[in-house]
Amino acid sequence: MSTVVLSLGANLGDREENLTEALDHLRPDLASDLYETPPWGEEDQPAYFNLTVICTRAGHTAHDWLSQAAKAEMRAGRLRDPQRPYGPRTLDVDIIAAWDDHGDPVLSNDPQLTLPHPRAHLRAFVLVPWLAIDPAAELPGVAKVRTLLRKPNLAADARSLRRLHPIWSNDHG
Ligand SMILES: Nc1ncnc2c1ncn2[C@@H]1O[C@H](COP(=O)(O)OP(=O)(O)OP(=O)(O)O)[C@@H](O)[C@H]1O
Ligand SMILES: Nc1nc2c(c(=O)[nH]1)N=C(CO)CN2
């Protein structure tokens, strides 16, 4: 069984609807509650809705998940401004970390698919929801998520997130 941790975010259009449609498409095994989060990286944009999910599938590679993520983004209209790399968007699906069928972490420097995600360790909006669904969460080759969240900057960012409500039942089957 291969496993992937995905971070989903939206700050344009009907944010919750965009994320719910993506979840219907991705069908995760475990999903965090929905969080409202201040924009990271570029302040001049609306607040985001974020959640982190875990998906497990036999024979599914990290690249398979990347194309699933791209499809989900296209279905949501993939509205974004290419001049603003951290700017507003209808849907963003990032592959945070992946493990292969043997349970070994997938490590990659390929710009098309860098694993673990190169900015995940800086983003409370990824780490807080992940830790909530997996207390043992660890970014392979980086650190345990609970250790990262003790860093002062991340701890401060973590306090600015607002947990809202579940949008995906973990019993979906
Ligand atoms: N771990 C990863 N997850 C998702 N995309 C990745 C990853 N590593 C590399 N990429 C590549 O990054 C490219 C740009 O992705 P995208 O436009 O979603 O970036 P972004 O969401 O604006 O920035 P960020 O990745 O910092 O959230 C994609 O075409 C994809 O091939
Ligand atoms: N809070 C928050 N900020 C962001 C997000 C996101 O999903 N949530 N995604 C971004 C795209 O890189 C840039 N900034």
From TrEMBL:
Pathway: Cofactor biosynthesis; tetrahydrofolate biosynthesis; 2-amino-4-hydroxy-6-hydroxymethyl-7,8-dihydropteridine diphosphate from 7,8-dihydroneopterin triphosphate: step 4/4
GO biological process: one example: tetrahydrofolate biosynthetic process
SUPFAM superfamilies: 6-hydroxymethyl-7,8-dihydropterin pyrophosphokinase, HPPK
One term of GO molecular function: 2-amino-4-hydroxy-6-hydroxymethyldihydropteridine diphosphokinase activity
Keyword terms: ATP-binding, Folate biosynthesis, Kinase, Nucleotide-binding, Transferase
Residue ranges of domain 7,8-dihydro-6-hydroxymethylpterin-pyrophosphokinase in the record: 5-135
Catalytic activity: 6-hydroxymethyl-7,8-dihydropterin + ATP = (7,8-dihydropterin-6-yl)methyl diphosphate + AMP + H(+)
Domain of life: Bacteria
EC number: 2.7.6.3
Listed InterPro entries: Hppk, Hppk_sf
Kinase among keywords: yes
Protein's name according to its UniProt entry: 2-amino-4-hydroxy-6-hydroxymethyldihydropteridine diphosphokinase
Organism: Natronoglycomyces albus
Gene behind this protein: folK
